[in-house]
Design a protein that fits this description.
2 copies of one chain form a homodimer. Chain A is mostly helical. Chain A contains 10 helices and 3 strands. Chain A has helices spanning 15-18, 27-40, 52-58, 63-75, 94-118, 121-139, 143-160, 164-187, 192-206, 210-234; strands at 49-50, 79-82, 86-89. In chain A, α3 packs across α4 and α6 packs antiparallel against α9. The longest helix of chain A is centred in the middle third of the chain and has 25 residues, at 94-118. The radius of gyration of chain A is 20 Å and the shape is globular. Chain B binds a DNA duplex through α4.
Chain lengths: 253, 253
DNA sequence: GCCAACGATTTGGAATGCAATATTAGAGGG
DNA sequence: CCCTCTAATATTGCATTCCAAATCGTTGGC
């Protein structure tokens, strides 16, 4: 750490800050999005400490919006704030991840049930299209595109359920496991299984078979856990940063 | 509005601020808890605008921790922050509430399934005890106690599932409908139905019948929607504050 | 009498400054 | 050589201050 005065070290300025096309969002929101992405894309490692001054100056903002953003990320459980000791990137234990995937499974089961009833034909056709795009990425072994399309398909099914709270909740829990699933996807060996399951899922949606879609989605997420636990945790340490935490901090009740 | 300089007008100082027994939590957390309670207990009305300077001085804090607290409550969807226009207490539409109850139903279904497997006999006995206490409150027509015990029972079942993310998610969605369920409980006429359902729920837990408990809980929440929609929305306007909102603000993707 | 433009005031957004707490480095003693 | 106590440093917590945007009241024109 030689330099100290250089404002922008490794991360540039905020993306939206310069291109003021969308009516300029509050700084806090921009910072929250930026830091959230940094966590979710594994640029900030689990367990890593976040120093406010440092990160704020890297993002060319003051500590105030960064602190507000950290509070948001804390309630999204992406960071943990230890009183008087600062923020660290969340580092869920395997059993926690398992629990999150179960929650996502339950949410998708609910979403699928209602999507089968409420989705428009156009929505279903679009999901089918995304599915084909995903197959293309699979064929090319383009794992990143595959992963993102996979996420988008599931999100679209949830969206088709027409339940705002479900969408929000799903998105939030999903963000918590995004990084882990992303890493798992990059090294996953049993890749074809998920593809087959997806075909069934789309079919159930097209035939508007609510019960079957619900079951398939729930099972699919259970299967995701199997893959994640095998890929991520079996092969070396999942996290790259040294653990700084002294144990989970309780919530404020 | 005659006075302007009196610091504490209608709300006293923060509860924990004076009794510094628990290692003094950060102000932001205290403020978040206080304001959350004010919203959830209907002291701040849905749609009501929150003026930062005013509320901050009423709570004897500066705007900084209040603003941080509002960001937390925003991501809990208890307030809505309109850029440059301040925060208003969330005022979900009936269909939103319905969606939230469906989500809670799905979460409790999952929680019940695992609680039936993982709960200790002590936990089950404690839940049974809470159930009897609730019956006592029912018999006395003590609606407030009944309501709180009801909430506690459901929370305990979730807790017995041993899934941290599930507990957190459940708690968060639950907070969003707490006020509405509370109001509904106060005027609910078909009260005995829920009591009968609870008896079945406890029985299913005691026999560790996971499938049945899961189904019962899901149905129970569906039933809750029936009551809430009948009690709260049919009888006069659910919210007491005038609407200030121009429509839901999008989230920041 | 109604509406639009303008200025004063209020309110939220963000940066800065100061106090309190935690962390680190170093000296001294065992 | 290790441990402990202490002083220096770094970091967070919170209040204050400054700035920009929105709101409100007023005036002037139609």
């Amino acid at each position: 750490m030689a330099e100290k005065n250089s404002a922008e070290k490794k991360f540039g300025t905020l993306p939206i800050a310069e291109s003021n096309n969308v009516a300029r969002l509050p700084l806090t929101s921009q910072v929250a999005t930026t830091v959230r992405d940094m966590i979710v894309e594994d640029k900030l490692k689990p367990g890593e400490r976040i120093r406010e001054r440092q990160l704020a100056s890297e993002l060319n903002v003051s500590r105030t919006p960064l602190r507000e953003a950290l509070k948001i990320l804390e309630s999204e459980k992406l960071v943990e704030i230890l009183p008087n000791r600062g923020a660290v990137v969340a580092d869920p234990a395997p059993e926690d991840v398992r629990g999150m995937l179960q929650v996502i499974g339950a949410l998708e089961a609910l979403g699928g049930r209602h999507a089968a009833e409420n989705a428009t034909d156009e929505e279903i056709a679009e999901i089918r299209a995304l599915h084909y795009e995903m197959l293309a990425a699979y064929s090319r072994k383009d794992r990143l595109t595959y992963f993102k399309l996979n996420q988008k398909i599931h999100g679209s099914i949830i969206a088709a359920s027409r339940n705002a709270a479900l969408m929000e909740t799903h998105e939030q829990v999903n963000a918590r496991v995004y990084r882990i699933r992303y890493r798992s996807n990059q090294r996953n060996t049993l890749w074809h299984e998920a593809v087959d399951q997806h075909e069934e899922i789309i079919a159930a949606l097209e035939t508007r078979n609510a019960d079957r879609l619900s079951t398939l989605l729930s099972d699919h997420l259970g299967n995701t856990w199997a893959k994640v636990s095998a890929d991520d945790y079996a092969s070396g340490s999942g996290s790259s940063a040294e653990k700084l935490r002294s144990g989970d901090v309780g919530k404020e009740t």
